[in-house]
Specification:
Helix content is 87%, strand content 0%. It has four helices and no strands.
Length: 142
């Protein structure tokens, strides 16, 4: 019994999830940067209210940054398990087939790392801008 559909499920599930997470992160980055450009610091009466407004949805970016590599690793582990399962069914040790299966499995880890790098970089850019805006407010109201 072959289970090639599992390979497709892994690709669609893991890579689809990673793609979705990257779209969400990029959308939040764009939204936050647009908000930061349009924010009027004078409308905030205290720094805590300003900080609450500026840090909205930052937890999503941080969560994706922290977990995307693990989602990719899960896809890799599932792909390797599938490769070994298929090897056991064939009762052969075709090196070319094994290596191609493992190489395809590793694409999930690579995708997870790319998504994490985008999220970490975006998080750091946003956090720096938040600190600058809070400091500007404190200087103006100090």
């Amino acid at each position: 019994m072959r289970i090639e559909w599992v390979s497709t499920a892994i690709d669609v599930g893991v890579l689809g999830l990673l793609l979705s997470l990257s779209v969400v992160v990029v959308a939040i980055l764009i939204e936050r940067l647009a908000f930061f450009r349009s924010v009027n610091l004078e409308t905030f009466k205290n720094s805590k209210a300003l900080e609450l407004a500026l840090t909205q949805r930052m937890f999503v970016v941080a969560s994706v940054a922290a977990n995307a590599p693990y989602v990719g690793l899960l896809g890799t582990v599932l792909g390797i398990m599938l490769t070994f399962y298929n090897m056991g069914l064939d009762s052969t040790a075709d090196v070319g087939r094994i290596m191609s299966g493992l190489a395809l499995a590793l694409k999930a880890t690579a995708a997870g790392l790319v998504v994490a790098l985008i999220a970490v970089t975006g998080y750091n850019v946003l956090w720096r801008k938040i600190k600058v805006l809070v400091l500007q407010w404190e200087i103006a109201h100090g």
